[in-house]
Design the sequence.
């Protein structure tokens, strides 16, 4: 079974789809940056692991909840802040923990 790696991205709110600066080639800049960020995040994945890479224009919580409907396990990250005890869950991790359609694993950020 392959690993589905999903990276959600959103266009800046001041740029709408009808804005002349985001039509054509400039419209793909945000998606291109998301593809590059996902490739960087997965660069140390073992070569024998099948990975399906997907970038989605959506809020992260919504994209992950949609992915959870077809997943066996959803993995999200959590930050460990210095001076705080335990993991600090952000809005996305907190949201998917409560609403995902599959089990969720929260993994601490590596230093």
Sequence:
């Amino acid at each position: 079974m392959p690993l589905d790696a999903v990276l959600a991205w959103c266009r800046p709110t001041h740029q709408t789809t009808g804005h002349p600066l985001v039509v054509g080639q400039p419209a793909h800049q945000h998606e291109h940056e998301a593809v590059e960020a996902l490739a960087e995040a997965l660069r140390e994945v073992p070569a024998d692991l099948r990975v399906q890479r997907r970038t989605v224009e959506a809020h992260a919580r919504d994209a992950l909840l949609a992915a959870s409907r077809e997943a066996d396990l959803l993995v999200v990250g959590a930050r460990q802040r210095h001076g705080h005890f335990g993991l600090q869950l952000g809005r996305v991790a907190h949201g998917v923990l409560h609403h995902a359609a599959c089990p969720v694993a929260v993994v601490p950020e590596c230093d």
